[in-house]
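Duplicate of #3305? Posting structure anyway:
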């Protein structure tokens, strides 16, 4: 199975978790997904009181410079850990 296929499979797997991971785990999952699928963060940091959007943007920005392949691999590993812990 190619890395992209493993990545896609991992994204489907986290949809079936029976319990909710921590906010930190969810932010890292989001950031690695965005980095793996789109690359470095684009656009400006959200302003105002949309704290969720700011946290997501910052988590993605923290992954800046990481290759798509490395982000995909980390996402797959995190998804596997979350499936073990939350399924």
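Output from current build:
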């Amino acid at each position: 199975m190619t890395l992209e296929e493993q990545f896609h499979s991992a994204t489907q797997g986290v949809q079936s978790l029976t319990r909710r991971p921590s906010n930190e785990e969810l932010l890292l999952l989001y950031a690695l997904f965005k980095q793996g699928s789109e690359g470095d963060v684009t656009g400006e940091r959200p302003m105002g009181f949309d704290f969720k959007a700011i946290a997501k943007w910052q988590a993605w920005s923290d992954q800046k410079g990481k290759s798509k392949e490395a982000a995909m691999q980390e996402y797959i590993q995190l998804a596997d850990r979350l499936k073990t812990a939350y399924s």
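Confirmed duplicate; merging threads. Helices lie at 3-14, 23-38, 51-61, 68-86. The chain has a mean pLDDT of 96.
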